[in-house]
User: What shape does this take?
Amino acid sequence: MAAVAGGWVSGVAGCFTPPDSIRIDGSSTVFPISARVKDKFAAANGGARITVSKTGTSGGITSFSKGEIDICDASRPMKPSERQLCKAAGIGFSEFVVAYDGISIVVNQQNDWCSCLTTEQLRALWRRDSPVQRWSDLDPAWPDEPIKLYGPDENSGTFQYFVEEVLGEGVPPRADYSPSTEDNQLVRGVQGDKYALAYFGYAYYIENASTLSLIGVDAGGGCVQPTVETIKANTYKPLSRPLYIYVSHPSLEKAPVADFVRFYLTRVDELAEQVGYVPAPSDVEQANVATLEAILSGGRESLAGDAAAGVIADAGGESDTDAESDTDAESDTDAESDTAATAEAAAAEQSSTAESAPAAAAD
Assistant: This one.
């Protein structure tokens, strides 16, 4: 595996002849991060051919489990059933936490009546068969006008995370809203309707902050808006969360993929910050890189064995557990039983190590 581990130095232009492209797909929330990493990598390494798509977390994981992509962007941890698909296909993989996000609730700028919603109001608004149809149904003092709702579709990790955290596990969401796999379409929907409301990743709010109004969430301790500080400190509850990439071990046998992932993990804090997300703490970055180098130093035989066994490697002390960018640029039974505990560890890591993360800035 020496060719993968050290045969080419990332960042040296003209030293890279890719045998094939690097394929990334998945979360529309993580898409801006991966697209920015791709652009920087391609600029530094002439000839790099990288495709970044955003079909949603579930769509990306489906492609990943079939060996159709090298890296899956995900805004939620992989489910045990999805891990099993990878295992059945002989695809070992590693999970890396690359940044933190706060799912943002937004309204039209002409909305001058609502600046905060309680989790109870959000639950009443988004649950299946909700009686809430008009703003006045949430608060009699608010306009007697229909609420036009926009949100991600059911294949989105953001949708799945929001539903589970706001409604509760197994509680179905309402179906009478306007879904989209494209976050910018959700943005345009709210921009064009005084009575609209939507939710999506924090970076999309930051990109459009001059044309949208941000709504705070009161989970019982007072109203809190998502900001770099509240996401970092995990005080924006319950909608702060880690963001992930999943990397295929068979793909890591290819030197271009290994070098791209190394570049990704060593530069992601800076680049995630540039697109409006909160960087992971420095100890998570260091653990990510150490995990990658340990995998690569095991050699081709180790990666082949991991793939056959469906091994999942922890990264950064975290859990085991969308339109194309136009640039050419394990689980065994024990591992699956650890999913819930390790997913909780990711959130705990966010809270306990948050103060060590560098400050982020909007794009």
